[in-house]
Amino acid sequence: LALKGSNYAGLLERHRIHTKNVEHVVDSLRNERIEVRLVKRREYNEETVRWADAVISAGGDGTMLLAASKVFDKFKPVIGVNTDPERSEGHLCLPVRYTHAFPEALQKLYRGEFRWQWRQRIRLYLEGTGINPTPVDLHEQQLSQEQHSRAHINERFQDQRSDISGPHLLPVRALNEVFIGESLSSRYAVCSVLFRENFKSCKPSFKFSLHRASYYEISVDDGPWEKQKSSGLNVCTGTGSKAWSYNINKVAHQAVEEILKIAKKHGSLNMPLNTELVQKVTNDYNESLLYSPEEPKMFFSIREPIVNRVFSSSRQRGFSSKVCVRSRCWDACMVVDGGTSFEFNDGAIASIMIDTEDALCTVLLEE
Amino acid sequence: LALKGSNYAGLLERHRIHTKNVEHVVDSLRNERIEVRLVKRREYNEETVRWADAVISAGGDGTMLLAASKVFDKFKPVIGVNTDPERSEGHLCLPVRYTHAFPEALQKLYRGEFRWQWRQRIRLYLEGTGINPTPVDLHEQQLSQEQHSRAHINERFQDQRSDISGPHLLPVRALNEVFIGESLSSRYAVCSVLFRENFKSCKPSFKFSLHRASYYEISVDDGPWEKQKSSGLNVCTGTGSKAWSYNINKVAHQAVEEILKIAKKHGSLNMPLNTELVQKVTNDYNESLLYSPEEPKMFFSIREPIVNRVFSSSRQRGFSSKVCVRSRCWDACMVVDGGTSFEFNDGAIASIMIDTEDALCTVLLEE
């Protein structure tokens, strides 16, 4: 790592800090005679979740997403502790001060000085010819996955005629968002080279361009189907409205200033155009993109829509209860919380909605 | 293809149209006793360019980008004919009417009823430890590339200590843009499966999430270095200002309406907020993103900047003569015109600028 110029000392230090913070949480729990099973990413599964009364994730927001991804029981609390405050915003975790004072958090839980927070999540139905409801875990490292997947693909090629399939409910619930877009840009993608000897240090030999527009049709709240071409479609929850969706949709101070300057030019501004006004408008606009994780509604946004003779997009973003998407893509996928991916190719139809039965139980400590 | 639900009949028809249009161009040239070499993508190379007095691309904008990518001579005209007007906007090609009336275009060229247009292009210098100045052609289909690249990677692992390298001028010139971003999202990316039997129908078994923020440092016009985290950095030419850059930066009618509503709420609008005003402001703003292909200046924009405690971004977009970027990414690349890709990992520094010697010679016919 160091030879390649990576900051090995920095990585080691962050690992040390994380390990120390995890020990603190585990010790705090065991001091209260709470039985603790400490599992790493690979060992974390639905059996472990069933065993537990509650799940605590120790890491950043990504770890919290992973923890939530195996919890389907509405009454199984999941609590996040941010063991890496330097690197993670910890939106999904307890406030950072509990990282070094976890017993305080436990005391509040004992005394009922908290309330339950149900974070709504998104469910996905997939149907159509040639769909593949088997998820790909983007964080999975095991070599066996290659063989597993090769068999999987062989199976699918054999079964090609057998698939007028009804809607499959996919075995995932999105805590942040579902993103639909082209996964690899090049139709002529050649290969990736896998060095079996040292897994972590190998990298695919080919880099694929990020930029490939996605073609699809979209229907919002059972409205009319619209053909679209864009860099992808993002459908988020209230939780996710602070995440990627926010970064897609937020407006820059610079852009608002420019827009108000133009409006002023058209004689439409009767106040001096100063930084304070621009800041207010920018902040108000960006805040309007956020909403409560407990609201059972979704926010969809189209990323970099391409508008021309063929494609239109009447609304670039908005709230909805249901979004249906029909893929017209060659090589697209649906990605849930940046961690699990499903093929979503020409002919497949996804139905995206919130069911309050899928909510994730978390806690909000009183401050 | 049809079994998978693809529109085979449609693909075949487009191929037929394209072939007919190509024949029309070739016949028109030969009728004037102009010697024509008709080459496909794979056969198109620098030797062919050297042989020619002029290069005509027959396809869409993508084909024009490919044609330009092998031309480094400022005085070798490259002309694009849009043989696929249904699918391609043809921004880089002659007006669509010449597709079926190419002799008219030739007549104008003979009579001098045109002017030369020099489209400025971007050059790239790369330096730093562990860089790899070998480009990967994202459109290249040949199997041998795998072996080529495997050898290439082996070489690099052996040479790891030998690389305090000065700036390499990369053998490419961007006609549209250079994009810098993470190429694959998952650090634990496993593999892609390659079916050697039927190349075009095989698809990698794993889809990688598109969403992975890129870390880098940026210095504009030799200004101070700024740490940034975003979905990537786009640096375009005047030509490219109509392309991806436009889609990244354009503002939606819906967003402008919302911004003006908020400004109105703060007492800042003295005109009724009607669709006409919103449309005017939207159009003016979006038009300000475009500029002449002949202007020797670049436009940089940061895609979905992440602003938090650690990362700031003083300017999200702007014009510049020089952009330097230091990679802090694990698995990033620089992608030129969506077709050629260079590794750009932790420690590598790219210097991006326009040199008028690199301009591409095209024609603007008088109308």
Quaternary state, please? homodimer
> Distance N terminus to C terminus of chain A?
42 Å
Element-by-element helix/strand order of chain A: HHEHEHEEEHEEEEEHHHEEEEEEE
Give the largest interface pair and sizes.
A-B, 98 and 98 residues
Percentage of residues in DSSP E strands of chain A = 15-25%
CATH-level-2 architecture of the largest domain in chain A: Sandwich
Q: How would you name the CATH homologous superfamily of the largest domain in chain A?
A: Probable inorganic polyphosphate/atp-NAD kinase, domain 2
Mean of residue pLDDT values of chain A: 82
Shape of chain A: globular
Number of helices of chain A: 8
Sketch the major β-sheet of chain A: 7 strands, antiparallel
What is the name of the CATH topology of the largest domain in chain A? Tumour Suppressor Smad4
Strand order of the largest sheet of chain A: 5-15-14-7-10-11-12
Structural domain tally of chain A: 3
List segments of chain A where confidence is low: pLDDT < 50 over at least 5 consecutive residues.
141-162, 184-210
| Rg of chain A (CA only) | 23 Å
**Which CATH first-tier class of the largest domain in chain A would you pick?**
Mainly Beta
- Kindly state the percentage of residues in helix of chain A: 25-40%
Query: How many strand elements of chain A?
Result: 17
Write a structural description.
- Two copies of one chain form a homodimer.
- Chain A is α+β, with helices and mostly antiparallel strands and 367 residues long.
- Chain A folds into three domains: 2-113; 122-194 and 213-239 and 293-355, Tumour Suppressor Smad4 (Sandwich); 250-287.
- The first copy, chain A, is built from eight helices and 17 strands.
- Chain A has helices at 8-31, 46-51, 61-69, 102-110, 144-158, 244-249, 253-265, 275-287, and strands spanning 55-59, 78-82, 114-119, 122-127, 136-137, 168-169, 177-182, 214-220, 226-230, 233-236, 298-302, 317-320, 322-327, 332-336, 340-343, 349-354, 360-365.
- In chain A, the strands form four sheets. In chain A, strands 5-15-14-7-10-11-12 form a seven-stranded antiparallel beta sheet. In chain A, strands 6-4-16-13-8-9 form a six-stranded antiparallel beta sheet, with no helix packed on it.
- In chain A, a hairpin with a 5-residue loop joins strand 8 and strand 9.
- In chain A, helix 7 (253-265) crosses helix 8 (275-287).
- The longest helix of chain A has 24 residues, at 8-31.
- Chain A starts with 7 loop residues before the first helix and ends with a strand.
- Residues 141-162 and 184-210 of chain A have low confidence and may be disordered.
- Chains A and B meet through helix 5, strand 7, helix 6, helix 7 and helix 8 of A and helix 5, strand 7, helix 6, helix 7 and helix 8 of B.
- Chains A, B: Its EC number is 2.7.1.23.
- Chains A, B: GO terms for molecular function: NAD+ kinase activity.
- Chains A, B: This is NAD(+) kinase.
